Predict the 3D structure of the following.
Amino acid sequence: MLRKLYLSPAGLIISLFQHAFCWWPRPFMIYGYFNGCFGKFKKHTRVSSSVILTNKNRIKIADHVWIGHYCLIDGIGGIEIAEGVHIASHSCIYTHSSHDSIRLLGRKFIEIQAEKRKGYVIKKVSIGEYSFIGTSVVILPGVSIGKGCVIGAGSVIHQNIDDYCIAVGNPAKIIGNTQERDRKLLDKFSASETYYLTKN
């Protein structure tokens, strides 16, 4: 009953009500995501009340996305999270870094606009359709993760990951292919009608 109500046009009002109570100390999942900059309500997207989104106007989140508790998503350089992406709890996505500019600029660092700081890194991050980001993953500026990927828990992603890769470790290394894994799963579970590569 509640699910039907949520998926009806009343879903936007329910989502706004949930967002109003994000201050509640115990995290909970908020159904529906609306970003005014992109002007669309994503009713199947779920974002925890404890997620921190900085520079929201530069974060593009598609529908059917799930972002777990205590994630930090830094949008200063721009982020695109495609349909069906799941990001597990305590993960961080960074699109900027001051690791060189703090030394180059010293006390002048704070006085200079971010885009003009010498040595300051600002680079876009993108995550492809139906990729899974495990818990406590760190994604660094400029990284592109392809579609259908699995990123293992605790991994640090510092370079691009091609479509359908399984990557784990710090620094992350490719250890497998999700298409090979999926062939076995499709035989076992008969999920060919719902499989993400057959979606319309």
